[in-house]
Design brief:
It contains two helices and no strands. By secondary structure, it is mainly alpha-helical. The radius of gyration is 32 Å and the shape is flat.
Length: 84
């Protein structure tokens, strides 16, 4: 009786796997509609000045250094507390 239950359970599992694979294959069929490409529009933008880019770089550099210092000081505090 045990082998009958095991065999029927195995057949059920295999059948479920096949039906789920077939259902996924049906969903994955491509549609026949083709999307038309959109027309490209050229938009003129103002160029960023070199001084503006330089200022952004300096701010980014400063912020990165500040974050690194905070992370190091926090790590140092954690190490000090663990050694006590």
């Amino acid at each position: 009786m045990k082998t009958v239950k095991q065999t029927s359970a195995r057949i059920l599992i295999v059948a479920t796997l096949f039906t789920s694979a077939a259902a996924l294959a049906d969903e994955a069929k491509p549609t026949s509609e083709v999307e038309q490409p959109k027309k490209e529009v050229i938009v003129q933008t103002k160029g960023m000045s070199d001084s503006f880019v330089q200022e952004l770089r300096q701010q980014l550099n400063h912020n990165i250094k500040h974050q690194v210092k905070l992370a190091l000081s926090h790590s140092a505090e954690l190490i000090k507390n663990s050694l006590r």
